[in-house]
Amino acid sequence: MRTVDVGGLTKPELIQKLDQHSISLNKYGEQLLNDERFIVSSTKQSLQTVELGPYLRMQYLDQPEICSTNISEGNKAPSGSITIESEALTEDNDFPKGFYLRRINDKLWLRGYLADHLHIWSPHDRFIFCRAQLLLYEDQEDVLKGKE
Questions:
Q1: Are the beta carbons of 99 and 12 closer than 8 angstroms?
Q2: Does residue 71 surpass a pLDDT of 70?
Q3: Residue 39 neighbours by CB under 8 Å, 6+ apart
Q4: Residues sharing a CB contact under 8 Å with residue 24, sequence separation 6 or more, in sequence order
Q5: In the chain, what is the greatest distance between 2 CA atoms, to the nearest angstrom?
Q6: Nearest to 29 by CA among 105, 74, 89, 80
């Protein structure tokens, strides 16, 4: 299991860090990152948003490469890819729903993807899900215990 720190960078800083790590983006990845609805967190945190994709890509540099000439096979994610589960920024079917990670010809990619509500994922597709962590401050703990 990997712990991924998310946040603490401005959007331009995040894009610069991706470039420093030689991370490639497809047009949907660029569209997600450059959209005004893609909001970055000013503080580091653990969360389940589309913002996780770029940070995970920068920290998962040892992703193995699965050789395949097929980028996509029908209702199946590309060979060797890992889709990051996150809430979509919009219901618009022509706007990317999220990111997936892939290594192609020894180049690391952060790629966006399109899918509508009718899409059925293949049982062979691989996903990353976030485990929520509840962080409490001392005064919040007292409230939960019934002390105020």
A1: no
A2: no
A3: 51
A4: 107, 108, 109, 110
A5: 61
A6: 89
| 3-54: pLDDT as tens digits | 677 888 999 999 999 999 999 999 999 999 999 999 888 877 755 678 888 9
CA dist list (Å): 1 to 25, 43, 63, 68, 71: 25, 23, 14, 26, 27
Structure tokens at 142: 């007292």
pLDDT at 101 over 80: yes
Between 52-59 and 11-20, two packed helices, what is the crossing angle to 10 degrees? 30
